[in-house]
Amino acid sequence: MSTNTFFLQIIATDKVFFKGPCQKLIIPLLDGEKEVLPHHEDMVIAVTIGEMRLMNESGEWINGVVGDGFVQIINNRVTLLVDTAERPEDIDERRAEEARERAEEQLRQSKSIQEHSHFEASLARSLARLRLKHKYEI
Prior knowledge:
Elements: E1 6-11, E2 16-29, E3 32-36, E4 43-47, E5 50-56, E6 61-66, E7 69-74, E8 77-82, E9 85-86, H1 93-109, H2 113-136
């Protein structure tokens, strides 16, 4: 691995989304985005639902949408653990639209704060998936 890359693993609950050398990683945070470059300071950061982008070793951008999780940066090795990770071409637009509609309806009918938070997260996930799908029109 060259000095202008770091080792990256992106692990979702159901699969390994990416594993290998990486030049850049841009992740969604509650207050914006964070870019991780080689030799970044060690830290752990909470990640939220949104678009994630990475530049692999050959300079190719890989885009995806991730769910909640966290990223750990230690000694030029980065591990992103999230509940979901999908590429634009893997998103079924019809299913994402149906999930958005269901979440909006459930939000209107939610009775408790816990239900409301759960349905808000479902809505955020479906909207992020639809935004990414439309952005890259695949």
